[in-house]
Amino acid sequence: MKRMASPALHLVKRHVLVTGGCGFIGSHLANALASRGEHVVVLDNLARKGSEENRAWLMQRHRKMLAVEVADIRDDEAVNSLASRAKAVLHLAGQVAVTTSMDEPKQDFDINAAGTLNVLEAVRRHNPQSPVIFASTNKVYGRILSDDSVMRQGCRYFPRDEHMAHGVRVDAPIDLYSPYGCSKGAADQYVRDYARMFGLRTAVLRMSCIYGPRQFGNEDQGWIAHFLIQAICGRPITIFGDGHQVRDALFVDDAIAAWLAALDRIDTIKGRIFNLGGGSANAISLLELLELMRGIFGRLPQVSHSAWRPGDQPWYVADIRAIAQALDWVPRTPIAEGLAKLQCWLVQRFGEAPQRDIRPIEAQA
Question: Do residues 44 and 68 touch, judged by C-beta distance below 8 A?
């Protein structure tokens, strides 16, 4: 990809580098950093839907504090140039969908694993004091539970093992499943190992379902926003599987608070890995989200079912007690409140949903 230098880039001396900073979480993080007085440089290839819009939003708010370098994380020259002058590197750039990884596994590896190694090597060789915080994923744990290890009650699955009441602990064995899980898992371990082997100030945040404004969700990634977008635009929602799948959801403002706390406390957490999610208090199934949407929209959306997708977890809830203790952090936004905020932004962005009569949702047996 041809690099396009930002006209303000040469003005920035010691900046915080946010890779993937025009994405959903990255744009919120860049905004928060600039708002608290940091010079921010964003590296993003603008390939993902909504990234151009997020870039315009960032530049409108922080033209004097923020610059955008349009480049790819696989571009050694760009990464070396920006990371060598950074006071910190927050690495969120990546390929984010399991389905895409199955279509293009080599590309997925090049972006997630090799791209992360580019970042680590740039810091190790040119700027070893700079903290590096990496956006990993709960997909490194694989399916977690076999079909006979979960039970169905009401509209959701539960683990049979009572020891998982608080969720999946960060020291649970990783079981890389799908090319995406493999590429992110490899990157995850490289980031930790560069703290052990080379003394870098790194940390890993294995993120669950993060949702909120500025998220352009689709069927492959960002499922909460995707459900709301489909309803707002009057389009049907496809549920893969039976809809009883459970995830823990974390509102983006709470996620950003954790990222900033991790950066501020990097010397006390360096070399560690944390789960970052909503925890058991913010766990929700797909069918339960649809019921919440009935309260938001005054009706149920149109829903169809399709087969389970490879690697889909019937249940995943993050045990967040470790990160809560280390960072003095807790999620503060209940799901109902976060959904209302997301719905408000989406309506402003996409417009009101057309009114139509929709039949009630029928859960699959």
Answer: yes
Task: Report the alpha-carbon distance of residue 94 to residue 20 in Å, rounded.
Answer: 7
Instruction: Give the CA count within 13 Å in the CB-facing half-sphere of 186.
Output: 17
CA dist 147 and 118 (Å) reads 38
Answer whether 294's CB lies under 8 Å from 336's CB: no
Give the catalytic positions in this structure. Answer: 180
Encode the chain (365 residues) as per-residue pLDDT tens digits.
444 444 444 444 689 999 999 999 999 999 999 999 999 999 999 999 899 999 999 999 999 999 999 999 999 999 999 999 999 999 999 999 888 999 999 999 999 999 999 999 999 999 999 999 999 999 999 988 888 899 999 999 999 998 898 999 999 999 998 999 999 999 999 999 999 999 999 999 999 999 999 999 888 889 999 999 999 999 999 999 999 999 999 999 999 999 999 999 999 999 999 999 999 999 999 999 999 999 888 888 899 999 988 778 899 999 999 999 999 999 999 999 999 999 999 999 988 654 443 333 343 33
**What type of residue is 93?**
A
Contact of 316 with 208, CB cutoff 8 Å: yes
The model's pTM: 0.92
3-state secondary structure 181-192: HHHHHHHHHHHH
Enumerate residues 6+ apart whose C-beta is below 8 A from 198: 124, 128
Cα separation, 60 vs 140, in Å, equals 37
Gap between the terminal Cα atoms of the chain: 48
Position 113, amino acid? A
Backbone torsion region of residue 355, taken as left when φ is above 0, otherwise alpha when ψ lies between -120 and 50, otherwise beta: beta
Going by their DSSP bridges, the two strands 150-153 and 156-159 should be labelled as antiparallel
- Which run of H or E residues covers position 160? none
